[in-house]
Amino acid sequence: MASKKFTLLAILVMGAAASGLCQLGGVLDYLDSTKVSSKKLPQYNEWKNNSKTNYFPPKPKSMGQLSLNGGLFVVDGDASLQPGWNLGLSYRKALGYVVSYRVGVNYATSTGIDYRKNGNLGNSQVLVNTYSVPQGPGWYVHSYKTNAWIPSLDLLFNLNNVMFHKNKSKFALYGLIGYSPVIYKTDLDALRGSGAYNFASLNNDFFARDRKEIRSDLKDFFDGDFETPANVNDRSPNFNQNGPDNYQIRHSVNFGFGTEFRIATRWSLGAEFKYQMTFDDYIDGWFLNNGSLTTSKDNLIYTNLFINYNL
């Protein structure tokens, strides 16, 4: 009989203990003063006595983060995709456990040589004047360079760190969405010096080969001097400078995802993919298709590596 009573008592004690663990969920019980350091005990007593002059537990630390980044930059437009590069500086600040904001600026540049004959001479008045029939073949090959300054304001959302009840977290995965105006200037390699390229010497057999071979030979064909401003959209905002030889500014939005890995107390490394929608079809200098405006807009792609320092 005594054995049965002992067994029943043990079951009740174990059940009570299990119930307590379920309620706490493995998180520190802030009502237990034995878990409070002697330094914070006065603050704890004020909080427990419902004092409004102080709060306990303390607000989680929220460091700022300064970052350098660099990586690939691609103009996703009418011309074939070819990667350039970008460099940037940014500052990130947490707004809570999940959301943080980041402000930054990037400089990006990309050059591209297409692999096709292009009859859209209206991409620049220089092309019209130089390669129109009968003085020219009536087509050209698109070769461009885009330089851009891209400030940004992004919201970042931690996807794996909603519960921050850890002293340190070594790995983070996040998504992002933001606003990034793009300030850009695009030029074409349309002339050899002050004269015309001999595009007529590039016959049909030249363009019937693999794209990689065509581009390789075209790199030797062009002189690499991007001397001709590409036509631009004269809509606002454009700094009130409609001329194609001036920088243009366009509103745009971006989204992406990234990861961060802590390598020291204040240092971490990150990798990020970002896609930016510009709503502008002039960024790669090619906005016509068979004499009509193209329906697709040019967008920007970044793949960056980050070096982060917590301030």
Notable traits:
311 residues; alpha+beta; 8-stranded antiparallel barrel; 17% helix
List strands and helices in order, with pairings.
Blueprint: H1 2-24, H2 41-48, E1 64-76, E2 84-94, E3 99-113, H3 125-131, E4 143-158, E5 171-179, E6 182-188, E7 191-192, E8 195-196, H4 204-207, H5 211-221, E9 228-229, E10 248-250, E11 253-262, E12 267-280, E13 288-289, E14 292-293, E15 298-310
Antiparallel strand pairs: 1-2, 1-15, 2-3, 3-4, 4-5, 4-6, 5-11, 6-9, 6-10, 7-8, 11-12, 12-15, 13-14
Oligomer: single chain
C-alpha-based Rg, rounded: 30 Å
Determine the N-to-C terminus distance: 67 Å
Element-level helix/strand string: HHEEEHEEEEEHHEEEEEEE
Largest sheet, in brief, is: 8 strands, antiparallel, barrel
User: Would you tell me the overall average pLDDT?
Assistant: 83
Total strands: the figure is 15
Lateral strand order in the biggest sheet: 1-2-3-4-5-11-12-15
Which parts are unreliable, with pLDDT below 50 for 5 consecutive residues or more?
11-27
Class inferred from helices and paired strands? alpha+beta
Question: Count the helices. How many?
Answer: 5
**What is the overall shape?**
elongated
How much of the sequence lies in strands comes to 35-45%
Helix content: 10-25%
